[in-house]
Amino acid sequence: MVLAELGGQIASALQKMSNVTIIDEKALNECLKEITRALLHSDVSFPLVREMQSNIKKIVNLEELAAGHNKRRIIEQAIFSELCKMLDPGKPAFSPKKAKPSVVMFVGLQGAGKTTTCTKYAYYHQKKGYKPALVCADTFRAGAFDQLKQNATKARIPFYGSYTESDPVKIAVEGVDTFKKENCDLIIVDTSGRHKQEATLFEEMRQVAEATKPDLVIFVMDSSIGQAAFDQAQAFKQSVAVGAVIITKMDGHAKGGGALSAVAATKSPVIFIGTGEHMDEFEVFDVKPFVSRLLG
Ligand code: GDP
To answer: Which part of the chain is the SRP54-type proteins GTP-binding domain (predicted)?
Structure first.
């Protein structure tokens, strides 16, 4: 379900509620059931939806509702604050400082948009006055280095990689060292993806992280992966210290629920969203406007 649809369904459940004269537990449960259904359709994971439902019931005071306060508003506010709470893990992500070298490592499944997002992230910071550089430590996928090279060249960002070296750890370390010497303050390491969450992928990621000691590991997730979001994000978090999430492909048939699941699974905030294939189709993620849009 796309975001607008979810907003529409929640709005309709709330509308029904405000048309009822007496709000008792049954009416509230009916309303929450409809909202729950809408959230599940939007790929918010089942345990999260359950938790949210019980939290809303705790917040919403039935007596207050019966006293004729604006019922729709009270429930809407409870949903708003619950969704915001879910998207805010309570601690901000590491943010790179200018003129001080930071290493940021990108992880995610193949096709999630990792390589594209690395360049977007570099380009975004370059415009803010940073001196970024890109390292291609993906030796698994043929063409990965060419893709990064092409993107980097377009954005005039220095890059490092190899056509012949097969050890991703070696390339990552060499790349990071090279750019530290060149006084780059934001060294971005793109890692290999693979199609599935295989043990070798996680082992390789772990080794690259151990060797480059990143200040931040960003998990890149395709917004269209659906209910698998929670498990996938959790699997990555269990192997490397994921500290932030970027959700890609929020244009098109994007589902909002994946973002909530990824935050819950990694206990890390979403920092940007990808909204297209181009370099500048990249937005800072803000919880409140996102939830407002979600609720229509
Ligand atoms: P990787 O395998 O994770 O490195 O993924 P790529 O960066 O190669 O991206 C896979 C495909 O998704 C490419 O065709 C990208 O152009 C596309 N892509 C990446 N981010 C976005 C996005 O935010 N929106 C859209 N529509 N496409 C994207």
So the answer is: 269-282
